[in-house]
């Protein structure tokens, strides 16, 4: 293959990996971000990594089949790394949904501008706060660092280690559930105490309408406890970087 075709192949490979990464990574994958901004971000990052990392083109014939396979490999790397980050990033949203279920607000749905799907207001609010804290702490630099390290571990054109990537994705999913339950544990304990208190009230005063009383109490307690424990979400921003270092196969 001549020099021009080799340069075009290298550019296409880097662009494919970064585009697949931007497609699923949080913040950049949001529907509220214009497509032009996403395309410009992927293109600028591609030019940057082509110049900085200087990846090498694989020794393949310049045929449609082989080029398609090479680009598919690069897309696999980008999607897997982005999915791992997206799963851990969703911890705060799962935490909010757990609290809303205890508050009895599962039917309160609005359209999430980040995904374009229906979501609960409290979980969406917590996700927005976490995103602001994450960006304020220069967390987006972590995304760029992830792409940079991926070229040190997974060179362009190499056969993907599916087992390693799959393990990272599954561990990220397990981490999301464990971390969200850990964040929600104090609030779940408070709701358990509330249920015990309501049970005692039902025994002491059987004529009292416990269901009518419990609804505003559960909503009020959920809002108060969420407000009290919101500062702990800021601590999860630094912990998020630690999880990334453990889960990303880099």
Question: Could you walk me through the main structural features you see in this protein, from its secondary elements to its overall organization?
Answer:
- The structure is a single chain.
- A two-stranded antiparallel sheet has the order 1-2.
- Helix 4 packs antiparallel against helix 5.
- With 250 residues, it is mostly helical.
- The protein is 76% helix and 2% strand.
Explain briefly what this protein structure is:
The chain has helices spanning 3-24, 35-53, 64-89, 91-103, 121-136, 140-153, 162-204, 210-229, 231-247; strands at 110-111, 118-119. With 250 residues, the chain is mainly alpha-helical.
Question: What descriptive keywords fit this protein?
Answer:
single chain; 250 residues; mainly alpha; two-stranded antiparallel ribbon; 9 helices; 2 strands; 76% helix; elongated
Distance between the termini: 31 Å
Helix share bin = over 70%
Figure out the total of helices.
9
Please identify the oligomeric state.
single chain
Within the largest sheet, what's the order of strands?
1-2
Total number of strands: 2
Gyration radius, in Å: 23 Å
General form: elongated
- The chain-level mean pLDDT equals 81
Strand content: under 5%
Give the topology string: H per helix, E per strand: HHHHEEHHHHH
Largest sheet: 2 strands, antiparallel
Class by helix and strand content? mainly alpha
Low confidence ranges: none
């Amino acid at each position: 293959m001549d020099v021009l075709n080799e340069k075009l192949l290298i550019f296409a490979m880097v662009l494919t990996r970064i585009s697949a990464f931007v497609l699923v990574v949080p913040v950049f994958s949001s529907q509220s971000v214009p497509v032009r901004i996403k395309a410009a971000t992927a293109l600028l990052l591609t030019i940057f990594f082509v110049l900085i990392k200087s990846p090498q083109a694989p020794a393949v014939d310049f045929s449609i089949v082989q080029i398609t396979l090479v680009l598919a490999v690069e897309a696999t790397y980008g999607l897997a790394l982005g999915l791992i980050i997206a799963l851990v990033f969703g911890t705060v949203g799962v935490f909010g949904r757990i609290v809303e279920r205890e508050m009895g607000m599962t039917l309160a749905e609005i359209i999430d501008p980040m995904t374009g799907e229906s979501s609960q207001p409290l979980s969406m609010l917590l996700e927005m706060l976490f995103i602001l804290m994450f960006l304020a702490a220069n967390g987006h630099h972590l995304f760029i660092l992830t792409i940079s390290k991926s070229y040190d571990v997974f060179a362009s054109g190499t056969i993907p280690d599916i087992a390693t990537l799959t393990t990272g994705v599954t561990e990220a999913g397990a981490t999301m559930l464990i971390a969200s339950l850990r964040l929600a544990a104090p609030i779940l304990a408070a709701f358990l105490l509330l249920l015990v208190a309501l049970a005692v009230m039902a025994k002491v005063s059987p004529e009292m309408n416990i269901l009518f009383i419990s609804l505003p109490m559960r909503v009020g307690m959920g809002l108060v406890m969420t407000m009290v424990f919101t500062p702990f979400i800021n601590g999860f921003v630094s912990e998020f970087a630690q999880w990334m270092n453990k889960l990303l196969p880099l």
